[in-house]
Amino acid sequence: MTRDRTENDEVSYSTRIPADIGCPDRILGPLTARQSAILTGTAGALWLGYVATRPFLAPLVYVALVAPIAAVMTAVSLGRRDGIGMDRFALAALAYRRSPKRRLHAPEGVPGLPDVVPQELAARVGPTPAVLRMPCQQVLDSGVVDLGRDGYAAVASCSTVNFDLRTGAEQQALTGAFARWLNSLTGPAQILIRAHRLNIHPLVDQLAQTAPALPHPALEHAALAHATFLHDLAAHSDLLTRQALLVVREPDPATSRASAAAARVRHRITEATRALAAAEITTTALDPGQTAAAITEATSPETTEHITAGQAQGEGRVWPSMR
């Protein structure tokens, strides 16, 4: 626990939180349950192999043969890559290797190439694309996303808060309000921060068109100079803007209680709006069109228009226009 003094001699307390707050528990010394199971299973298999080969194989020869296996399994159980265990990383790599790399939205199925296509050309094309299976079934009229067996979800856009410019007391109040919302959660919730490309060309065109109507030549000159600056900035830089989303889910796939689950997830968005208002975070539930646009943008970013500067000026309500 550390104490930081602000210019007003106010005291703010900060507590270090581990980066991996979901780290599994240690049950056998520094080993987790998964690591203990892998090492115990490997040791048991090697011991059974030794018992089976002891009548006709010298112990040193057996140790030399199984040493690479023991080393690999130890590295798999104790090693980590990108914040996850090597065993999970290897399984994820294997699943990625076996999964199709091209998917299409084709509920009727993806037909293969006609028989008239030569085999050489068919080999160059590669494997047939697989059918894209979306986790969401549909977006209801209320803006709730039907996730099928996984229940229902609702999405809301959130504004951001400049935390560093606040005094110690203000930081404590914001942190306390946000903590109260976290403690009030009754179901799964996710805070998603996404980056989008920013298209400032409409703003540049608007400045160029409205500059001649300004009441003073100096203002016109300043507006045109700013438009030129923005145009050069967009030509030499990849401009991005951020979007903060709040997603709450009700894991209730029962058909008989579907309407109740959909209403409950909307009510949780309303509760989050009231609770986060104390932390000076403006939360706005998305309507069906905005929700569908967010899903489309997430699954296929290149098929939507870039966000315009005017859209990015809203408090978290940043949505691309659909083609």
Automatic annotation (TrEMBL):
The lineage of its organism: Bacteria, Bacillati, Actinomycetota, Actinomycetes, Kitasatosporales. This is PrgI family protein. InterPro entries: Uncharacterised_PrgI. It holds the Pfam family PrgI. The chain crosses the membrane at residues 56-78. Keywords: Membrane, Transmembrane, Transmembrane helix. Residues 299-323 are annotated as: Disordered.
